Amino acid sequence: MLETHPTVSRLLTAPAGTPRHRNQDELVGLAQQVRLLGRGGAGFPVATKLAAMPRGRAVQVLVNGSESEPASQKDRTLMRQAPHLVLDGALLVARALDTRHVTVLVHDPGATDALTRAVRERSDASRVRVVAHAGGFVSGEVRAAIRLVDGAPAVPPGRRVLPHESGVGGAPTFASNVETFAQLALLSSLGADGYAAIGSAAEPGTTLLTLVGDVSGPGVVEVPTGLPLAALLPGQDTDPRPVLIGGYHGSWVSDIRDLRVERPGLREAGLPLNAGVVARLSNDTCALAEVVAVSTWLAGQSAGQCGPCFFGLPAVARDAYALLHGRPSTADLDRRVAQLPGRGACAHPDGAAMFIRTALTTMTAEVEEHRRHGTCGRPWLQELPTGPAPAVRSAS
Ligand code: SF4
Questions:
Q1: How far apart are the CA of 155 and the centre of ligand 1, in A?
Q2: Which of 33, 69, 100, 309 measures 20 to 30 Å from 388, CA to CA?
Q3: What is the pLDDT of residues 90-99, one digit of tens each?
Q4: How far, in Å, is the centroid of ligand 1 from the Cα of 273?
């Protein structure tokens, strides 16, 4: 079974089955009552997205299970362990929108197998397509995911067209992350009061996180929203270290004492939770080498069709590598990083800039050691994964 944080285990233990049918207005109302936010990157209000959808046989539902960030494991864990709950949510939305077109986009082979089996096991999923793909970080972006489903290169289109206007095959598409669909299934079964019986007032319920590095048991955890972040990071009060919130498009932060696992509060603090990766490095690894490795990986995760990705990210990665070996000043790197945001067709350069900028501002002692001596003396232990995702530790 999935190892969960002791405080809660609800989403992954929910009984699978067809949730109570809801029409579009009812589903929008429920999502509104519990302030449900999307569980992919943007954290967009689900009710708003659902209310904007037209209904009809041409409409498409896209379940985005790409999860292409190597540090994140929560979506593949959910799909492997509770594939029927994900399908419940997708079919619930499809019925509310009077359509039968459901596509699940998956990257992880184990999750693909689990979903394919689950589709075969049920009588209401004959029109569900499970599309497996080879991955790539940017392909997780919803517009890139739509292009991939349509057989085009998995890069976001230059124009910012919203999926509810033109998505899969050019049809209006309700697209969201796999966890969002599982949460909708649970919400429909429990009703708003039951769903909101745990979690914070601002974002009721639970959320899945992937804990990475020196944390209270690395892997996937399900926690009630509103949980103090420090509960997941023992020893942080006596040995404070930078904590990465929101994964490789997220932010490093030094002081987590007032932070809780809750998207609205974190966003207010300028710390998007994104897909829910929380990481802390041990004192044994070279923190700067970890950051440089991720920066280099980020630079390789685009088709280079926009300036900041074609020129900016590779130059940043080169500067960061040189800094690791004590060569240029941080001023060069800061200047280059400042030029990345706001100029790409998607948020990749902005997210990468946030990751690198906040690393430099929270790891000042490590940066200074490297600048002066060309090393900190610690080895690079690869605590932040940049290769193919490791096997899911907790899936049964
Ligand atoms: S900003 Fe970068 S990742 Fe995004 S579409 Fe342009 S080249 Fe691709």
A1: 7
A2: 309
A3: 999 999 999 9
A4: 21
Residues with Cβ within 8 Å of 331's Cβ and at least 6 positions away in sequence, in order, are: none
Q: What is the pLDDT of residue 158?
A: 63
Nearest CA to ligand 1 atom 1: 344
| Higher local confidence (pLDDT), 100 or 14 | 100
At which residue do the structure tokens 């390789």 appear? 300
Max intra-chain CA distance, the chain: 66
Q: Scanning the structure block, which residue is given the tokens 């809750």?
A: 262
For the chain, give the number of residues.
396
Q: Does residue 197 have a pLDDT over 50?
A: yes
Could you report how far apart the first and last alpha carbons of the chain are, in Å?
A: 5
Nearest residue by C-alpha to atom 4 in ligand 1: 346
CATH number of the domain bearing residue 336? 1.20.1440.230
Specify the pLDDT at position 374: 86
208 lines ligand 1 (CB under 6 A): no
Are residues 156 and 49 part of one domain?
A: yes
Q: What is the pLDDT of residues 222-252, one digit of tens each?
A: 999 999 999 999 889 899 999 999 999 999 9
What is the percentage of the chain residues whose pLDDT exceeds 70?
90
Domain for residue 203, yes or no? no
Distance CA 155, CA 146 (A): 9
Ligand 1, atom nearest to 144 Cα: 5
Same domain, 23 and 156: yes
Q: What whole-number distance in Å separates Cα of residue 332 and Cα of residue 348? A: 21
Average pLDDT, the chain: 88
Q: What's the 307 CA to ligand 1 centre distance in angstroms? A: 8
> Could you tell me if the CB of 306 is within 6 A of ligand 1?
yes
Q: Which domain holds residue 23?
A: 11-195
User: 353: exposed, middle or buried (C-beta count within 10 Å: 0-12, 13-18, 19+)?
Assistant: buried
The finding on whether 135 has its CB within 6 A of some atom of ligand 1 is no
Are 178 and 295 found together in one domain?
no
Ligand 1 geometric centre to CA of 314 (Å): 13
Q: What percent of the chain stands above pLDDT 90?
A: 60
Q: Which atom of ligand 1 is nearest to the CA of 309?
A: 2
CA of 352 to the centre of ligand 1 (A): 11
> Is 251 among the domain residues?
no
Same-domain status, 33 and 164: yes
Which residue's structure tokens are 């929203």? 225
Q: Is residue 274 part of a domain?
A: no
> Is 127 among the domain residues?
yes
218 lines ligand 1 (CB under 6 A): no
Report whether residue 302 contacts ligand 1, using a CB cutoff of 6 Å. Answer: yes
Do 151 and 291 fall into the same domain?
A: no
Instruction: Report if pTM > 0.85.
Output: yes
Structural domain count, the chain = 2
